[in-house]
Amino acid sequence: MDAAPSRRIDLSAKLNAIMAEVNGKVYFQPPPDLVMTYPCLVYELEDVDIKFADNGPYSLFDRYQVTLIRHDPDSPIIRKLLGLPHSSFSRHFATSGLNHDVFVIYHQ
Fold first, then answer.
1. Omega into 85 within 30° of 0, i.e. cis?
2. First to last CA, the chain
3. 29: Cβ–Cβ under 8 A, 6 or more apart, which residues?
4. pLDDT in tens, 6-64
5. How many C-alpha atoms does 4 have within 13 Å on its Cβ side?
6. Phi/psi at 32 (nearest 5 deg)?
7. Hey, which bits of the chain come out as E strands?
């Protein structure tokens, strides 16, 4: 089930505003051959959380996995992402000299 385009575009605008502060890029489901520039955010739709009442859906939240990728191990972007509604930190890992912080963001 895909997210409604306007909801995804709304989230993308919020992510772009955050990354504009550090001249970073935002990528939605980038193809494997894309050469990314850092710092960046990579996000994709992970699931849709549906709440039911009276045998029908009444609330839908799109769940996105958002990954902050950068060289610097400390970044103010982490706190800005956590400041978004329904955002939570999932994990950190480092690979190929890059730091990755993964977040889960529910967006309605």
1. no
2. 14
3. 43, 44
4. 889 999 999 999 999 999 999 999 999 999 999 999 999 999 988 888 888 888 889 99
5. 7
6. -65, -25
7. 25-28, 40-53, 56-70, 87-95, 98-107
Amino acid at 91: R
Q: How far apart are CA 43 and CA 85, in angstroms?
A: 16
Average pLDDT for residues 83-87, to the nearest whole number? 96
**Among 70, 66, 74, CA closest to 14:** 66
Would you say 50 and 89 are in contact if contact means Cβ atoms under 8 Å apart?
no
- Classified as helix, coil or strand, 88 is strand
Sheet with 98-107: list strands edge to edge: 25-28, 40-53, 56-70, 98-107, 87-95
